[in-house]
Inverse folding.
């Protein structure tokens, strides 16, 4: 049993090292944060989330290089009913390979497989929003109405190379905001790109069924006023009926 555990640990370590050699996000190696170059100015964008009220920003996941897994399924993080495939990792900017991510300091990358799978147990609708960075000519995002990339294909997005310029020593520094509209209820998303060459940040979506709207103070005032008017009207009608009966 000990030999098997050692072999599994060795294989995992080897796959991570190989991925680091291939990925532009990791090829610079892990460096102390104090040695990171200053951010490249001018490429940072303020994140916006059209129609979404769940945000996955990959902050709070401990470690420089950690699997996301069920972090957003209530295991270590908030419970949004969201889970990621085992090859999907959160990487901290301390590796010194990327900068200007929409929400510092961690992003999502496809470290060991071209495909990153995201399942949303309760489903989501309307649209999917996120930021991405890549050196690849073509990266695909497919949205399905079933789990694990099953069922009907609801929408497809093709992302192009958005980091062909210089980034002051970083692998990537430009992040493109994307919103993919679709009809129906989605339950899974597959992000596909060359292994280790796709960075994703700030995934946002609207849960199926949404959230119950809570009346504001002004709305409560209107509701209270309507109730008072209804009571006054009822009392007036009762008095009129009583007057007619007395006559």
């Amino acid at each position: 049993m000990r030999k098997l555990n050692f072999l599994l640990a060795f294989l995992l370590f080897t796959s991570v090292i190989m991925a680091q050699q291939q990925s532009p996000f990791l090829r610079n190696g892990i460096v102390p944060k104090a040695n990171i170059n200053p951010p490249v100015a001018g490429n940072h964008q303020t994140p916006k989330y059209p129609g979404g009220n769940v945000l996955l920003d990959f902050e709070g996941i401990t470690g420089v290089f950690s699997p996301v897994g069920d972090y957003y399924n209530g295991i270590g993080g908030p419970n949004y009913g969201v889970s990621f495939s085992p090859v999907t990792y959160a990487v901290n900017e301390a590796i010194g390979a990327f900068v200007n991510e929409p929400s510092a300091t961690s992003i999502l990358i496809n470290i060991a497989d071209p495909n990153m799978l995201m399942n949303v147990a309760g489903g989501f609708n309307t649209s999917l929003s996120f930021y991405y960075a890549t050196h690849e000519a073509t990266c695909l995002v497919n949205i399905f109405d079933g789990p694990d990339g099953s069922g009907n294909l609801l929408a497809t997005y093709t992302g192009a190379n958005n980091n062909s310029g210089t980034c002051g020593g970083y692998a990537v520094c430009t992040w493109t905001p994307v919103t993919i509209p679709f009809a129906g209820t989605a339950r899974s998303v597959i992000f596909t790109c060359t292994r280790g060459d796709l960075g994703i940040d700030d995934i946002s979506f609207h849960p199926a069924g949404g959230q119950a709207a809570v009346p504001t103070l002004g709305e409560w005032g209107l509701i209270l006023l309507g109730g008072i008017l209804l009571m006054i009207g009822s009392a007036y009608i009762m008095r009129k009926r009583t007057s007619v009966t007395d006559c």
